[in-house]
Each structure stands twice: as structure tokens, then as C-alpha cells.
Amino acid sequence: MRTSLFLTALALAVASCVEEPYGAVPSPSQLEWQAMEMNMFCHFGPNTFTGKEWGDGTEAEDLFNPTDLDCRQWAATAKAAGFKGIIITAKHHDGFCLWPSPVSDHTVAQSSWRDGQGDVLRELSDACKEYGLKFGVYISPWDRNDPHYGMPEYNDVFVQTLESVLGGTYGPVFEQWFDGANGEGPNGKKQKYDWPLFNGTVLKLQPQAVIFSDVGPGCRWVGNEEGHAGRTNWGRLETYGFTPGHGGPPVDTLNQGNKYGSSWIPAETDVSIRPGWFWRASETPQVKSVQELLKIYYESVGRNSLLLLNVPPDDRGHIDPADSTRLMEFRGALDAIFSDNLADRARIRRKDYVWTVNLKKPKTFNRLVLQEDLTLGQRIAAFTVEARVDGQWEVVAEETTVGFKRIVLLPNVTADAVRVRVDESLAKPFLSTIALYQDDIYRE
Ligand code: FUL
User: Fold this and answer.
1) Tens digits of per-residue pLDDT, 330-368?
2) What is the DSSP string of 210-224?
3) From ligand 1's centre to the CA of 44, what distance in Å?
4) What is the pTM of this model?
5) Which domains does the chain have, with CATH numbers?
């Protein structure tokens, strides 16, 4: 085992024997979820064929007609890009169900696609299993088609909708994505959502599922759709008095979490590789560049957040070659940047709140990766990074939180030692990773 890893593992083993966790800590499912780092979001449905962002629920079922649906191609693309799971819009606000929901007459079963025998969730969940990816679902409570919407009965219809996916034969669901949007239904009324009932239904059928909403309980919206988590970003959140959607916490709170929040609800950064959430031929020239994707990566995964990158399939039912090509370039860039940990063979010594990485001879680097052991709770609130350049210690970064993963963007530094000094911590800090890399690709 490499020295640094060995020391880290040893430090961890000792730490977890004697340390009590600080504050709210992740459940095993939340920890596993956060370690996935990057998942693929697939917005797919009638809007793929109409060019709308929000269908109004009156779209004819026959509009949904992918000419060559190939969920294995989605899964192969996701796998090659390094995503660990796929979340599909099983039902968006237009109410159209991508599976034959028994409580709706606005589904694939009413369309002539595959003579009404098609089931996108079946094909995608099978493809995910085949490629070793986890399968997750977005099921919008807002429904612009369901005639019950806006009346108390709708909450029961929605529960049955959830049951037909989560209690069905699609297998384990790692994440249930609840959109907070709450507009008018076909009768012009808004719905009063029964969130405890919805969450209870999910957890009864899929106890390991991480539930996304503005207030969790599994993970939280990051507060924007541009791909940026807060530079300070706590995994804890205070949810008292808040509800998903319009009753959610202010966006800057969602972006940064709460230092002393009483629940563990880490941030998920959802952002689209294209201008819109759904595929449109006209937006193909605007697929985000590798530079834009790297910025998003650094500001999400590199800031203690999971990245949920939307890559919407096209009207054939394929990931567009423009998107998949870009994803492979993005993967190539990440592999190149993070292939060589320059602190790999270094001696790392800890004294109180200071870690010193002795590189033995000068090395040039511009990325520092830190990880906290979250089973003990997120503790570090401020730290300073110093580098020994020509025998002199120089401050190269001053930052705040670490959490699951923090990637600090440094200027190009040539140094023979690095020091991480924790200036403020809510309890004794424990780092499980200290690594250094050189990124010659991303231009800030
Ligand atoms: C939003 C929705 O209204 C958008 O259409 C999209 O699905 C996005 C991920 O969430 O709230």
C-alpha cells in the first residue's frame, strides 16, 4: 500500500476508534451516494418532440415517438464518461409517464410507440444493470394533465404513481428526485402536496433511496441551475419551518448549507450540458465546452457536492453524438488532470491541526485535493495552504470548508513541501485524503 494511503488509513482507523461524531452525519446510503460524485440526468418525454421546456399536458400521446430508442447507448455513454448512475424524468410536469402507469391514461401505453407496449423505465433500468450503473427517477408531483390535480385526491393518485415505479419490478432506485415546482393543473388549481406521505411512500418501498428536494431529506438542491455549489459548503442543513419548492430555504442557504444545521442533507448540483433541459436540434451547437464542464466540475464535485449533469437524449432516443463526444473529451481531461498524484510517495505528518506533506524534491502543482472523514461529521470551517518555495513558506490559499471532497485551485506552485493548517474546526479535524495534481487543461 502506498505510504500516504497507509498513513491515512491508519489515522482513520485510530480516529474512528476514539472519536465521537460531530453533529449530524450521513447515513450509509448518503455516504455511498456522495461517493458517486457524478451522475447523469436524462430529460426525455413529449418535450423532446415539441421543443418545449414545460409541456402543458395536452400533448397527444402519439407525439412521444422515439424512432430508435436505445437505452443501452445511454448507459454505455454514461459509463464511459465516468457517471455512476442515471436519473430519468419518468414523469415531467406535463404528466406523461414513460412507463405504463396504471393510474394515468397519459402514458406510453396510450401512444402508438411500439404499439403501446413500450416502457422506457424497463429498458433503462435493464441497461443500467447491464452496465453496472445505479438507476434513479425524477417523478414530478406537479402534473398538468391529471384531472385530480388541485384536489386532495391527487395526493393518493401520486402515491399510486410512486408505487407503480418504486414498488414495481424496475429494481433498486438509488435516488428519488422531487421537483418543488407547483403550478396549476388542468382545472387551474394548485395542489397542496402531502410531502410526509410522499417521502414515507418512497422510503417504505426503497429504504436506501436518497430523496432529493429543496429540503431533502436525502440531499438538497444547490440553489441554482448553473452548476455552482458554494465555496463554503456544509453538508448540514436546518429544515425547520421549510418545505420543498416555494417554501424552501433561501437560495444562498441551499448553496452553502448551514454550519450548525441539525440534519445531514448535502448539496446536489443539477445543470444541463445544453441551454435547455430537453434536447433540441437547434441547441446542439451550444453543448457546453470542456472548459465549461471543468469549471462546473471544480465548482460542484470540488466543493463538496454531487454533480448531476443533464444529458438529454434526442428524438431518436439516442444521446446526441455532439454530447457524447464532449463527454468523452471531458472524461479525458479529468483523467489527464487526476492521473498523477504528486503527493503519492510523500511523507505526510500530522501535528495537532497541521498536516505537512514532504515531497522530498520540488514539484510543480496547481490542485490540492482534500477529503474529510464524514463518518465523524463535517468539521473543518477554515484552512490555510502553504507551500515551501526555495526554503520559504508561502501562503498559497485560504479557504473554508472541505467536506467529502474539496479541490483547491492554486496558482502554479513549485515547492518541496506543502502544509495544510486548519484554522477553525468544530471538533478535532480528520483528513482522509491529501493529494496534489497539475492541471494543464483548465484555464480559469
Ligand atoms: C425544474 C423543472 O421545472 C425543470 O423543467 C427541470 O426539470 C429542472 C431539473 O427542475 O424545477
Assistant:
1) 999 999 999 999 999 999 999 999 999 999 999 999 999
2) EEEETT-SSEEE-S-
3) 12
4) 0.96
5) 2-21+342-437 (2.60.120.260), 36-337 (3.20.20.80)
